[in-house]
Amino acid sequence: MARRQTGEESAYREAKRAELLKVCAELIARRGYAATTVREIGDAAGLLSGSLYYYFKSKEDILESLVSGLQDVLWARYQEIVDSADSPRVKLERALRVSLEAMHTHNDEVRVYQNEGAMLHLNERFKPMAARRHEFESMISGFLVDGVAAGEFRADLRVQVAFRLIRDSVWPVVHWYRPGGDVTIDEVADEYLALLFDGLNPRSM
Amino acid sequence: MARRQTGEESAYREAKRAELLKVCAELIARRGYAATTVREIGDAAGLLSGSLYYYFKSKEDILESLVSGLQDVLWARYQEIVDSADSPRVKLERALRVSLEAMHTHNDEVRVYQNEGAMLHLNERFKPMAARRHEFESMISGFLVDGVAAGEFRADLRVQVAFRLIRDSVWPVVHWYRPGGDVTIDEVADEYLALLFDGLNPRSM
DNA sequence: GTCTATATATTGATAGAC
DNA sequence: GTCTATCAATATATAGAC
Predict the structure, then answer these.
(1) Both B102 and B84 in a single domain?
(2) Residues annotated as DNA-binding region (chains A, B) (predicted)?
């Protein structure tokens, strides 16, 4: 039973750490990583700044936990889609819906992931997380290439440019979507997918 | 002639100030406003940090000059388009091309404008610049409403959502477009406009 | 105009008491 | 686990010599 004690303490620590991470996510999402001080985080969490170092090794450690935690969840769902038997167009649609849903379920974390993209590329420590961005590109581009081959997309599609438009139109949604607002994330997804597939033009030209 | 002297000194000052702003734009675009120190700016410009305060009142003054300078150029061109006799669809196309061209001619400044959007909204000092973002929204939304009325766009278009997709797909281009790279900004504009108007679908369904 | 020198504040982080 | 107290580094900004 004495052994057990260690495990239980560690469980509390993990729970509190997760709780603190939510506070960090909200602050860093709103004010930016560089502009958020560890003192502000302590204030918001009801702790003194020094106490945070019982849970985190450093400020960078906090950012790493936030981003890699989100990526773990997201990339697992992407893998399910890649492994499925759906058509390329359906896979693309599902991947974009999963991404948009994360803006509802993990709003702060996605905002951090988006806002601190530059830092993720500049800082050597965050290389693994930056690398995963390339996996996202490979996945989406693969769907586009396969979709063109299957006749589901325009034959003259420039995949590299199309990928960038898709990526850049979907992720910034997190900057204006607010959970509990007057438009649901499913409505956003419906409208965005309609526009990406059909465009602005009238359907019968 | 003694009076003239003041004007000439002031002219030199303005020229050097503009030169320093280019250095600031490059640094702040690459490393972010909060993470860029005045010492780094001084080093990059060949001055000591203290000397910068002969040209700028504060670090915030630098950011304000960068952003409002860009906006002055851009919004003047937007006004020409609004005042023109073109159709809504052509106005939309022209406005997006002007925005994309700025990523070629004022790449660093547009990156700063994009990256520091959150700070522009949080800091009271930058309110006027944040307000101009709403003017951009009004303009583009106006084109969309008029275009739907004129039958140039789908009748069931949800203007608010369409605006956001357009805005979010166009401005992030600055994060990957590089002047002098293997794709010109005109090529990007052609591809993006084709996708926005026609979508991913094959043209003959 | 640019420098030297420095004021003043704030930062991330640590050591040890409780 | 959290606090007190504080370190060392770094930040923006200023005053006055040159």
Answers:
(1) yes
(2) 37-56
All residue ranges of chain A with pLDDT < 50 are 1-3, 205
Distance from CA of A4 to the nearest CA of B (A): 45
The reply to whether B48 and B64 lie within a common domain is no
Give B32's contacts in chain A (Cβ within 8 Å): 34, 118-119
Q: Domain ends where: A32, A56, A80?
A: A56
Residues B70, B25 share a domain: no
Total number of domains constituting chain B: 2
**pLDDT in the model for residue A2:** 42
pLDDT averaged over chain A?
94
Q: How far is A197 from chain B (nearest CA, A)?
A: 5
* Sequential DSSP letters for chain B: -HHHHHHHHHHHHHHHHHHHHHHHHHHHHHH-TTT--HHHHHHHHTS-GGGGGGT-SSHHHHHHHHHHHHHHHHHHHHHHHHHS---HHHHHHHHHHHHHHHHHHTHHHHHHHHHTHHHHHHSGGGHHHHHHHHHHHHHHHHHHHHHHHTTSS-TT--HHHHHHHHHHHHGGGGGT--TTSSS-HHHHHHHHHHHHHH-SS-S--
pTM for this model (two decimals): 0.93
Q: Which nucleotide lies nearest residue B35, CA to C1'?
A: D11
- pLDDT band per the 50, 70, 90 thresholds, residue B84: very high
Give me the total of CB pairs closer than 8 Å, taking one residue from chain A and one from chain B: 114
